[in-house]
Amino acid sequence: MARLVIVSNRVPPPRAGRGGASAGGLAVALQSFVAPGTLWFGWSGRVVDKPSGKPRVVEGQGVSYATIDLGSDDYDRFYVGFANSSLWPLLHFRLGLMRYRREDFEGYLAVNAGFADVLLKMLRPDDMVWVHDYHLIPLAAAMRERGFTGRIGFFLHIPFVPASVLEALPPARDLLLALCAHDVVGFQTQTHLSDFLDCARRFSGFAVEGQEVVTNGRRVRAIADPIGIDAQGFARVAARAAGTAYIQRVRESLLGRSLAISAERLDYSKGLPNRFEGFARLLARFPQHHRKISLLQIAARSREDVAEYQALRRELDRLAGDINGRFSQFDWMPLRYMTQTVARTKLAGLFRIAHIGLVTPLRDGMNLVAKEFVAAQDPADPGVLILSQFAGAAEELTHAVMVNPYDPDAIAEAMSTALEMSLEERQERHAVLRRAVFDVTAARYCNVFVDALKGH
Ligand code: G6P
């Protein structure tokens, strides 16, 4: 049987296991799927003076995790530069934040070529390679140039954009051609998929037949395969966590007030300033909720070497201070704002006891927090999910209270609606959301993708 090889920029630590404390969405989704014998390859997360170019291999539960270090120029051009200052803003529709420099793109190509050199030495001819996310778009093309003819699939975890946005990126065509070096290309939603097919038609010069791009000698199959979570596992963790001393302390600190929760990386795609403004408007326009609600915002610091993230952090510090300064009373502070990372088990418990899950990104590929919040609820007395219409999850979670995150008044009104919603309506909405989250799981996501790759 063909061996599965996973490639992603971040590689989970071997013992993070299912839902381990430091595992991110991708790691959690894949880790329950990877069988013994799988190879997982990527960046070690370390930046060193002289990278050896030799992978460090660690075994964990039969899986080999192979990682390499980056030099500081590569880190600046590949990770800080092209991946996170050009592609990330572009693919989140933020052209105003996009910074492009040719040397960054060259660094991006060079790191991908280096990854291809190292990976190919570890591959067997019949291996099936599954590459993840925007850091590694040109990897397959580099592998093909070096003679690899096996199956390679690619999954984009973040949004794809319409042609009128993509064309702003000077090497847009190179990226499209690189995507066409795969056998299967996967997207989170139907919208991203059709935008990709449209871009392929416009920029690549290849014919598009249905969901396939026909290149010289290869057919690239494009699919929509929304990522999910281990809903049962997360629901169990949440129910158990709700009884822990940590959650008990949180409950006591609330003094019977309703908890609204938001949790994500501190990233401009997440719409944090708009959300803070929305919360401020709730307090200004609906004084009946004063002293009755606390918003806990967890915004884990991220990509701190990228200037836009530093600026956003300063802005949020200011906004948080402003909201609490304006509305706090001596024994009530409406906003609790934390920039540390919170362990998944604790988060699960916080979701479980929250009355509102506030997930309002300006754009998001999927957003697994929305799914986790739903899975964590007690079906007998569920909290309300307020969801941005621009999160990929909105295609599936249609029974959330939907908002346009650019409109702070809409966020305020949705929060007020959620605080006043009857038990019956909460249960009805939650039952539908729960079915969606329990149907489209992490296991299903992996199976759909790998079946498509096998069948190619
Ligand atoms: C998003 C991306 C991932 C990335 C993660 C954390 O979820 O889709 O590819 O790993 O953010 O960002 P970081 O820059 O720390 O890897």
Topology:
Elements: E1 4-10, H1 25-31, E2 39-48, E3 56-60, E4 63-71, H2 72-91, H3 102-122, E5 128-132, H4 139-145, E6 152-155, H5 163-166, H6 172-179, E7 184-187, H7 190-204, E8 207-209, E9 212-215, E10 218-224, H8 231-241, H9 245-254, E11 258-265, H10 272-285, E12 293-300, H11 307-327, E13 335-338, H12 344-353, E14 356-359, H13 368-376, E15 384-388, E16 401-403, H14 408-420, H15 423-439, H16 442-454
Helix pairs in contact: 2-3, 3-4, 6-7, 8-12, 8-13, 9-12, 10-11, 10-14, 12-13, 13-15
This protein binds 6-O-phosphono-alpha-D-glucopyranose (G6P).
Give structural notes.
Strand 14, helix 13 (368-376) and strand 15 form a beta-alpha-beta unit. With 456 residues, the chain is α/β, with parallel strands linked by helices. It has two domains: 4-228 and 442-453, Rossmann fold (3-Layer(aba) Sandwich), CATH 3.40.50.2000; 231-439, Glycogen Phosphorylase B (Rossmann fold), CATH 3.40.50.2000. The chain is globular, with a radius of gyration of 22 Å. The two termini are 15 Å apart. The protein has 16 helices and 16 strands. It has helices at 25-31, 72-91, 102-122, 139-145, 163-166, 172-179, 190-204, 231-241, 245-254, 272-285, 307-327, 344-353, 368-376, 408-420, 423-439, 442-454, and strands at 4-10, 39-48, 56-60, 63-71, 128-132, 152-155, 184-187, 207-209, 212-215, 218-224, 258-265, 293-300, 335-338, 356-359, 384-388, 401-403. The strands form two sheets. Strands 3-4-2-1-5-6-7-10-9-8 form a ten-stranded mixed beta sheet, with helices on both faces. Helix 10 (272-285) runs parallel beside helix 11. It binds 6-O-phosphono-alpha-D-glucopyranose. 6-O-phosphono-alpha-D-glucopyranose is lined by residues 10, 24, 133, 157-158, 302-303.
